[in-house]
Specification:
By secondary structure, the chain is an alpha/beta fold. It has a single domain, classed as 3-Layer(aba) Sandwich (Rossmann fold). The chain has 5 helices and 6 strands. Strands 1, 2, 3, 4, 5 and 6 form a 6-stranded parallel beta sheet that branches. α3 links the parallel β3 and β4. The two termini are 32 Å apart.
């Protein structure tokens, strides 16, 4: 099973990145998890609004789209800024929505870490709303939240989660997500009706 884990921030120092790196190591014997940094993506702007807009998808954006397409499931780690996801993550999702819409029907697990006690709960709810929009249409596992509060003190010097209880919680949620990925993939393989996706000038 191959997963793509998206670091949902442009911060150079982030406990959300540390959380995904821990997951990458901790579950290495079970699945392959590749990390993707969105901090170098160009800000989204709708091409039709530019007089001399190029039709090519930016290289860094295309790299993200290609990696999403190859992955069997997506993990997104989001911090919480003012009760919402960061602008850089929203911009990345807009690129996906506007171009290939490659998140459609893709199994997605949302996790989040924050310095406060709530562990990005409101940002995760915000992200679920966005991913459920028609042009994204991701498949999110219901009733699954991994909320890591007070994250600055949650890891040891080696980047490992200190709390055995939080590790056990993460293991349960992640293994359910692996099963959810398998079930979703099986379900979609039996679908006979395929929705038409919007085509853009560079796809024609």
């Amino acid at each position: 099973m191959n997963y793509l884990a998206i670091v949902g921030t442009n911060s150079d120092v982030s406990t959300n990145r540390t959380l995904l790196q821990f997951m990458q190591k901790h579950f290495a014997s079970e699945v392959k998890i590749d990390l993707f940094e969105i901090k170098d993506l160009p800000a989204f702007i709708e091409k039709d609004e530019l007089e001399d807009a190029e039709v090519d998808i930016p290289v860094k954006v295309q790299d993200l789209l290609d990696q999403i397409a190859k992955a069997e499931g997506i993990i997104i780690a989001t911090p919480e800024y003012d009760h919402a996801i960061p602008a850089v993550l929203k911009s990345a999702l807009e690129w996906i929505s506007y171009t290939t819409q490659t998140l459609k029907n893709k199994p997605v697990l949302i996790v989040g870490a924050s310095h406060g006690s709530l562990g990005s709960s409101r940002a995760q709810a915000h992200l679920r709303q966005i991913l459920d929009s028609p042009e994204l249409g991701a498949r999110m596992m219901p009733s699954s939240e991994f909320l890591l509060g007070k994250s600055q003190s949650a890891f040891d010097n080696s980047g490992n989660l200190i709390s055995a209880e939080k590790v056990a919680e993460l293991e349960e949620i992640f293994r359910e997500f692996v099963l959810f990925t398998e079930i979703t993939t099986e379900l979609l393989s039996k679908r006979t009706l395929k929705k038409k996706t919007k085509k853009f000038s560079w796809q024609e």
